Input
Amino acid sequence: MERINWTDYFMAQSYLLSLRSTCIRLSVGATIVKDNRIIAGGYNGSVAGEVHCIDEGCLIEDGHCIRTIHAEMNALLQCAKQGVSAHNATIYVTHFPCLNCTKSIIQAGITTVYYAENYHNHDYAIQLLEQSGITYQKVPFNPKHIAQYFLER
Output
């Protein structure tokens, strides 16, 4: 019986978090990790106390849902709220981060970004990651394959 590797483990956590998403346009999850320990997680959803897209519909402006806080930002804000540094951490995200999340990831001092799916990969976001020396990598991941680990046990 094989143990799940760290990348699959943390990416599976991100997919699990994405199941809490309240935006109907795209479910995204993010897990921030330091020394193979999860320090924060987030999913895309509304501001605490605000109505949710799944209940009221998305609030669209310029083609974007402005009601939603992105998963990466929610994870970074969880770090801030709990007083945990994301400096030199790794983030696992179900989808490639948008430009604004990319800028926040860089400012937080995250050194590595793993993502499972392309999603409007912005050229400037890629440029910023490269300029900042941040490693970013698309990792092959299919959430359905996690079930295989359970079936083998």
Observations:
- Helices lie at 6-18, 53-56, 71-82, 99-108, 123-131, 143-151.
